[in-house]
Design goal:
single chain; 108 residues; alpha+beta; two-stranded antiparallel sheet; two-stranded antiparallel ribbon; 31% helix; globular
Length: 108
């Protein structure tokens, strides 16, 4: 898994362009590449959880250091829609200690 941005608890704070700031990070943060574009968000979530599952040691270390793992789904709607997260998806997210946030953006 590749990160696009990361830091760990205790790291020195920096600005987004890398300029040193005062203080230390109070938590850990890691942003990875998204795996998006399938026909449904639940398929994308399943693929992301599968990739996180393959890297479960990394996830455990991140959570153990005070970090949090979250999958953010931004869903742009053009009408009515529904999303069902199947029991296996929910169980895998729970086992990995991964939160799932779904943000809905209704059309005009």
């Amino acid at each position: 898994m590749k990160s696009t941005w990361q830091y760990s608890k205790g790291d020195r704070k920096t600005s987004p362009n890398g300029r040193p700031l005062s203080g230390l990070r109070k938590d850990s943060f890691w942003v990875g590449e998204s795996i998006a574009g399938s026909d449904s968000p639940d398929n994308d979530i399943q693929r992301m959880l599968s990739e996180l599952s393959e890297n479960s040691e990394f996830v455990e270390k991140l959570v153990g250091s005070g970090g949090r793992v979250e999958i953010l789904v931004g869903w742009f709607l053009s009408g009515n829609a529904s999303l069902m997260l199947s029991n296996p998806i929910v169980k895998l997210a729970d086992r990995l200690n991964v939160d799932i946030r779904i943000e809905l953006y209704p059309g005009d």
